[in-house]
């Protein structure tokens, strides 16, 4: 009887460590640069009727507003588990549009060289297949690092302001998906 109870408790404990969204396992915690980041929130990015990816935001401490997320120091991660194939052009266009929609012309001027660096990294990646996981990690000492299925691409893109610009794609005043914004902030599904 004790074995059954122990096994039941272990199964429940395992379920508490992972979430499943659209068939994608979303970890509750991920290690990054020696810090144990926790899932702040996750949801599905949709465009029209199409499910594009499961997006997840990982932070060192849970935050419920975009301002709190942007102000938080330390490593951060945005993870995108693709639910369909995407070309490098689709990735570049979506990221650039999301940044443009949430910044003034003056702000964009200060970011443009680094936006171009990100576009070059996405071109290097080429198309990303359904099931691929793209992460945008921020490491304070290095900058923004892009990985696909755990393999880094390109060199780090400098600046906390640049990572903040990326976060505004999902958390800004004009997010790519309002439901995903709420989910990443832990208040939606």
List keywords for this structure.
single chain; 189 residues; alpha+beta; Chalcone isomerase; seven-stranded antiparallel sheet; two-stranded antiparallel sheet; 9 strands; 40% helix; disordered N terminus
Question: TL;DR of this structure?
Answer:
The protein is an alpha+beta fold and 189 residues long. The chain has six helices and nine strands.
Describe it for me?
With 189 residues, the protein is of the alpha+beta class. It has a single domain (2-184), classed as Chalcone isomerase. The chain contains six helices and nine strands. It has helices at residues 2-16, 66-71, 88-101, 105-125, 160-171, 178-184, and strands at residues 18-21, 24-27, 29-32, 35-47, 50-59, 76-82, 133-139, 143-148, 151-157. The strands form two sheets. A seven-stranded antiparallel β-sheet has the order 3-4-5-6-7-8-9. A two-stranded antiparallel sheet has the order 1-2. The longest helix has 21 residues, at 105-125. The radius of gyration is 17 Å and the shape is globular.
List the helices and strands and how they pair.
Layout: H1 2-16, E1 18-21, E2 24-27, E3 29-32, E4 35-47, E5 50-59, H2 66-71, E6 76-82, H3 88-101, H4 105-125, E7 133-139, E8 143-148, E9 151-157, H5 160-171, H6 178-184
Antiparallel strand pairs: 1-2, 3-4, 4-5, 5-6, 6-7, 7-8, 8-9
């Amino acid at each position: 009887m004790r074995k059954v109870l122990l096994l039941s408790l272990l199964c429940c404990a395992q379920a508490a460590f992972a979430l499943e969204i659209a068939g994608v396992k979303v970890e509750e915690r991920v290690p990054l640069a020696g810090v144990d980041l926790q899932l702040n929130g996750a949801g599905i990015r949709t465009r029209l009727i199409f499910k594009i990816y499961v997006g997840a935001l990982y932070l060192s401490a849970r935050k419920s507003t975009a301002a709190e997320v942007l102000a938080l120091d330390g490593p951060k991660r945005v993870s995108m588990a693709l639910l369909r194939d995407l070309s490098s052009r689709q990735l570049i266009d979506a990221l650039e549009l999301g940044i443009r929609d949430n910044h003034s012309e003056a702000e964009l001027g200060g970011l443009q060289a680094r936006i171009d660096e990100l576009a070059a990294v996405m071109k290097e990646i080429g198309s990303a297949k359904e099931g691929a996981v793209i992460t945008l990690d921020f490491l304070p000492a290095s900058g923004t690092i892009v990985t696909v299925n755990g393999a880094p691409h390109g060199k780090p893109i400098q600046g906390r302001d640049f990572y903040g610009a990326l976060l505004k794609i999902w958390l800004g005043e004009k997010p790519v998906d309002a439901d995903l914004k709420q989910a990443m902030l832990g208040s939606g599904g």
